[in-house]
Specification:
This protein is of the alpha/beta class and about 325 residues long. Helix content is about 20%, strand content about 45%. It has 4 helices and 21 strands. Helix 1 runs antiparallel to helix 2. The longest helix has 26 residues. The chain is globular, with a radius of gyration of 20 Å.
């Protein structure tokens, strides 16, 4: 278990040109492909591995990724991982942060998760309360005052899965994330944000009949005072994942959850979403109240008070208010 008081993250840097952003994304793809190629070579008895060549390729990819002002995978809360080695081994993990302050003042900031992250791995027959991962943040404040931000979420992320060959229909592993209150503020005319989610993300890969992955953001407030909020650009991430279904119609890879959800969000031209994203059998994202206030700036896309769900996921919101008072 880990407990922290206040976590403050401040990111800055010069704005990148579109050419620089494209080069950076190509470098990420090169590194990702290199990783998978290396892994496949190592585990295959028929492949010869040239260590020197692999290290040189890896060094080149890392050097290209080291771009000043570029920040990827920024998380405010803590990480809780619970892993049971069989159906009876007990594993509990908790991460608790009282306050998170995330200041995005400039630069190119991709995949910003203000809440925490919980991962639960267990067997296909894991019983209730045996493998439990919990992350909690009391209050989140995300202030975006400059630069470019891609994917900003006020809530936390959860992932529940089984690691053996069975499909996990009876597994009761549990991954939970809670944020009591999340406030996201966007200001300044030169600020650009591609996709705002007030809540979090839940992925349930167990195929179980119950909810194994839950991301709750009790109260959400999104205030747009200036700048531009554009449709979310999942293409940066989804192009790295395979979209495949098994013969039974269930996702064959973890990437299926990403690509199916990104496809739904892209089709809806989402710029702002009050709740979050849920994918997989009974995964749940929920908020009690969402308040979206468009005081200024430009919103180039659609605004939703609730969330999105795919592949059996669930999205719930108690009350949602959208106030247009100056934005275009």
């Amino acid at each position: 278990a880990t407990t922290e008081g206040t976590v403050t993250i401040s990111l800055d840097g010069q704005k990148l040109t579109d050419t620089q952003k494209g080069a950076y994304q190509d470098s990420v793809e090169t590194l990702y492909n290199l990783g998978w190629t290396t892994l496949n070579q190592i585990i295959s008895p028929d492949s010869e591995v040239n260590v020197d060549d692999l290290l040189n390729q890896l060094q080149t990819s890392v050097d290209e990724l080291n771009v000043p002002g570029v920040h990827v995978g920024n998380m405010g809360g803590g990480l809780a991982v619970a892993r049971g080695t069989n159906a009876t081994v007990k594993s509990e993990a908790t991460a608790d942060v009282q306050n998170v302050v995330m200041q995005l003042n400039g630069g190119y900031n991709v995949a910003n998760l203000a809440g925490g992250m919980s991962l639960a791995f267990g067997g296909s027959e894991t019983s209730e309360d045996t493998v439990v991962a919990n992350s909690h943040v009391g209050e989140v404040n995300v202030n975006i005052t400059g630069g470019d931000a891609v994917l900003v979420a006020g809530g936390g992320a959860t992932y529940a899965t089984t690691y053996d060959d069975e499909p996990g229909y009876n597994s009761m592993v549990s991954a939970q994330s809670t944020v009591d209150k999340a406030t996201i503020n966007i200001a300044n005319s030169d600020t650009v944000v591609d996709g705002i989610f007030g809540g979090g993300i839940a992925v349930d890969d167990t195929n179980a009949a119950q909810t194994n992955a839950t991301s709750v953001t009790n109260d959400v407030e999104i205030n747009v005072h200036g700048g531009a909020v554009n449709v979310v650009e999942f293409g940066v991430m989804s192009r790295f994942f395979d979209d495949a279904l098994s013969d039974t119609g269930a996702p064959a890879t973890v990437g299926t959850y990403v690509t199916e959800t990104s496809g739904l969000v892209d089709a809806a031209n989402v710029a702002i979403m009050g709740t979050g994203l849920a994918s997989g059998g009974k995964a749940l994202v929920s908020t009690d109240t969402t308040s979206i206030n468009l005081y200024g700036g430009t919103v180039n896309g659609n605004v939703f008070g609730g969330g999105a769900a795919t592949l059996g996921g669930q999205s719930e919101v108690g009350k949602s208010d959208i106030n247009v008072a100056g934005a275009t």
